[in-house]
Task: inverse folding
């Protein structure tokens, strides 16, 4: 099935929101790293959340590329 412009736009919006979250997490991770060893206990969770966001982002970008190729 050919994707609708609305489907493509929706996916682009999801990617934009996730990009924003990814940037925030990257900055948070950077702040933790600069404060080491003080914030050491926060590092594993922040790193895991950052990793998850970037994995989701990679998946959504691949979905978008696939949809755009079909349109």
Result:
């Amino acid at each position: 099935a050919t994707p609708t412009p609305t489907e493509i736009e929706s996916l682009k919006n999801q990617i934009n929101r996730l990009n924003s979250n990814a940037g925030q997490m990257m900055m948070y991770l950077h702040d933790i790293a600069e404060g080491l060893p003080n914030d050491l206990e926060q590092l594993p969770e922040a790193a895991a959340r950052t990793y998850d966001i970037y994995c989701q982002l990679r998946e959504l970008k691949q979905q978008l590329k696939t949809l755009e190729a079909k349109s």
